[in-house]
Amino acid sequence: MRQQASAPPRTTPYWSDSATMPVFPKLERDQRVDVLVVGGGITGLTAAYLLLEAGKTVAVVERGRCAQVDTGHTTAHLTMVTDDALADLAARFGRDHAQAAWDAGLAGVSQIDDIRRNHQIDCGFQWVDGYQHVPRGNVTSEQIETLRKSAALAMELGFDAIFVDDVPLMGTPGIRFQHQARFHPRKYLSGLAEVLRESGAHIYEHSTAEEFSTNPLSATVNGYTIACDDIVIATHNPLVGLKNVVMATAFQTKLALYTSYVVAGRVPRGSVPDALFWDTADPYKYLRIDPHRDFDVVIYGGEDHKTGQVQKPTDCYNRLEQALTSLLPEIEITHHWSGQVIETPDGLPYIGEMTSHQYCGTGFGGNGMTFGTLTAIMATDAILDRSNPWIDLFDPGRKAIVRGAWEYIKENKDYAYYLIRDRFAGAEGRSLRAVQRGSGKVIEQDGQKVAAYRDEQGNLTLRSATCTHMGCIVAWNDAERTWDCPCHGSRFKPNGDVISGPAESPLPSVE
C-alpha cells in the first residue's frame, strides 16, 4: 500500500496527462459573427458545434486553453441522476417536473453519444450501469427502505432502476440505474475541437472577454471587438456579460460553490467493474474507471466542502487515499486534483436567457458534463427560436414552477429527444433496455411476445415474435442477426421481412 506523502501532492488531472488538445491562436482582429461563445469547455464547444450545424457563424473565445479549467477537472460521470434525490425533486416540483429534470440529463448524454458517433471521435465513450449504494460499513433497514422507494419511484417515472441487495465491488445494497455512461472528456473535446476547426468555427485561446456592449451587441477581446447577434456565456460560473453589476451580484447569491477532490490510480485490468458508483453519504463519494489495454485507471472523488472553508486540503486527499486503498489495497495512486461544483437552492441548474440575447448555464452540481451539454442544446434552441421542453424548468429567473397536470411527454412529443426516448424507456420498458445495440431479444410486453431489435445507432424495431407460418415463437440468431423459427426453419430480417420460408409474410409491426 502506498504510504502517505508528507509534501502536498502534485495536482494535475489525469485527463491532462492522458490526452492533448489542439492549439488555437489569440484573437488579433475585429470580427463579426452570428454568435459569440465565451468559454471553451464542454458547454462552449458543444454550443459552437450545434450552432454551426444550424448554419450560424460562431466565434469561441477562451481566456486560457480550451477544456483546461472546469471541464478539465471533472470526473466525467455521465448520468441523469441528480445530486438531489428524485423523491425530493418530486416533492418540490411535482412528479412530471422531476421526470423532466432526469430526462434532460439523458438528453445531454444522448447528444454526446450522437456527436462522437457522427464524427467517430475516439474518446472511450461507453454506456454502463450506474450504482447508488449505501456507504460501506453499517447498513440500516432505514437506508434499505429509502433505496427501495427511490428505485420504485424512478421506475414509475420511466427510468430503468432496480433495487439490488449487493452492489458489485461495494458489497452493500443499492440501486442499479441502466444506461448511464462514461467517457474521456479531453479526448472528446479534442475531437470536437478538430471538427469545429474543419467546419469553419473561429476558436481563440488566451483571449479574454473583457467588456460587453449592447449598442451594437459585442464584446471586447484582447482589445479587439467581436460583434454578434447573440452571446452564450459558457464559463461555469457566469460572467456579468450584458447584465448590470447589481443583477449579477444578486444572481451570485443563489449559487453555492463547493470544492471536490479526486485521486486516481492504476489497478489490474478487469479488477474493478466498468460502471459508475456513488454512495448516499453527504457529501458522497464516487468512483469510475478509465480502461486501458493492460490496466484500468480508477478515478475516485469526494470530500466536498464549500470552497475556501478547509485549512488543509491535503487532509482531504489523504482521507480519499485511505478510503480508496481500503477498497482496493493494490492500487497504485498516480494523480490528485480538485474541481469545483456549483449548487443551487432548489437542486436544479439555471439554464436559459439571463438578459436579452445572452444565454448561460450554471448550478450543475455533480452533473457538469450532462447539464453543460444540455445548456448548449437549450441555448441553440433559443437562438434558433425553437421550442424546448425544459425552458421553464431551468429558467434562471424562476421563482416557482407550477405544479399540477402537465402532460409532459405529450406536450413535447415532437421534440427531438422524445423521438428517440425509447432508447431510455424504463418501468414497463425495462426489458426493452436489455436489448443491446446490434442485437435482438424476445421480450414480453402487455402479454404479447415481441421481437425487439436495436440497431447500432440505438433505434429500436419491434415486431411480433410469432412466426407467420404456424405460430411458433422466433429466436434471435446473434451470428447472422436474423430472427429464426425453431419449428420449421423460417428466417426473418431484423425488421421482420422474410428471408426464407416456409413463412411468406413478414413479422407484423407492434404498436
Notes on the structure:
This protein is 26% helix and 28% strand. The protein is an alpha+beta fold and 511 residues long. Strands 4, 5, 6, 7, 13, 14, 15, 16 and 17 form a 9-stranded mixed β-sheet that branches. The chain starts with 13 loop residues before the first helix and ends in an 11-residue tail after the last strand. The N terminus is likely disordered.
Briefly characterize the structure.
The chain is of the alpha+beta class and 511 residues long. It has twelve helices and 26 strands.
How is the secondary structure organized here?
Blueprint: H1 14-18, E1 31-32, E2 35-38, H2 42-53, E3 58-61, E4 77-78, H3 86-93, H4 95-118, E5 126-133, H5 141-156, E6 161-164, E7 174-182, H6 185-199, E8 202-204, E9 209-214, E10 217-221, E11 224-227, E12 230-233, H7 245-252, E13 256-268, E14 276-279, E15 286-291, E16 295-306, H8 313-327, E17 332-343, E18 350-355, E19 358-362, H9 368-383, H10 408-411, H11 416-419, H12 430-433, E20 439-445, E21 448-454, E22 460-464, E23 475-477, E24 482-484, E25 491-492, E26 498-500
Parallel strand pairs: 1-11, 2-3, 2-12, 3-8, 5-14, 12-19
Antiparallel strand pairs: 4-7, 5-7, 6-7, 9-10, 10-11, 13-16, 13-17, 14-15, 15-16, 18-19, 20-21, 21-22, 23-24, 24-25, 25-26
